[in-house]
Amino acid sequence: MMNQEYFNLIPMAPEQCVTGFGTTLIVAPHADDESLGCGGVISLLRKYGQRVYIVLLSDGTRSHPNSKAYPAEKLRDLRESELLDAAEILGVPAENIIFCRYPDRDVPSMHTERFEGAVQNIAKLLSIVQPQSIFVPWRRDPHPDHQAAYQIVDAARTATAKIYEYPIWLEQLGETDDAPKTEEAVPFRLDISTVLHKKREAISRHRSQITDLISDDPAGFRLSEHMLSQFNVPYETFFISK
After folding, report:
1. For 199-238, how does the pLDDT look when each residue is reduced to its tens digit (9 = 90+)?
2. CA-to-CA distance for 150 and 95, rounded, in angstroms?
3. 93-145: per-residue pLDDT in tens?
4. How many CB atoms lie within 10 A of CB 103?
5. CA 158, 161, 167, 168 torsion: positive or negative?
6. Reduced to 3 states, what is the DSSP secondary structure of residue 229?
């Protein structure tokens, strides 16, 4: 677990700074990452009239792999519907959400056969959306799909888009070497206090990940109360790539 002091020293930015983000693309490896890591900034972007798109990379089918009630295709559909519900709360219309359906825990990473195809797909999306800002998980966030998400975006991005990296598992599972280095990124916290209630509501829509909705897979994934408490705060943490 990383030293909490690192996060406590990160400066706070006012909510109005999102007016400079422009058209924004949120890259979520899994359905719930968009709400956990970016629910506040998404809500603020919509509050100030900025256009937001969300791309979901994985199909989410490994969260409860042993469930008979929710086999892979049904679980995928459930998790996508939960994302749609969360996005609606945050103000993002369904037509602005893209589903890639890469295998859960196997989002294409560097040096894998499918990586170039994934990069080309995201590059096409960027050419269509033309985002001024892209939010993607921190490059060393301790989950293979999160690291793969950054690698895809880093390979596909254009010079015109600014990259903001968001941590999900860094605080809980990261080692000291996983933290951003001075030459890599500038950390900041965004004040989301006026929209925290919307972020909470969006997270609550991911019932398959935070409740016993899927009750026939005891080993299935569920976000702990401790983990959820890390996101129930009036700010979000981001790293601006250099």
Report:
1. 999 999 999 999 999 999 999 999 999 999 999 999 999 9
2. 24
3. 999 999 999 999 999 999 999 999 999 999 999 999 999 999 999 999 999 99
4. 15
5. negative
6. helix
Give the largest CA-CA distance in the chain. 48
Give the integer Cα–Cα distance in Å for 142 and 65: 21
Closest CA to 89 of 200, 207, 172: 200
Q: How many CB atoms lie within 10 A of CB 22?
A: 15
Q: 136 is written with which tokens?
A: 């993607």
Nearest residue to 236 (alpha-carbon basis) of 159, 170, 157: 170
Environment class of residue 225 by beta-carbon count within 10 Å: exposed (0-12), middle (13-18) or buried (19+)?
exposed
At residue 160, the 3 state secondary structure works out as coil
* Phi and psi based region of residue 67 (left: phi greater than 0; alpha: psi -120 to 50; beta: remaining): beta
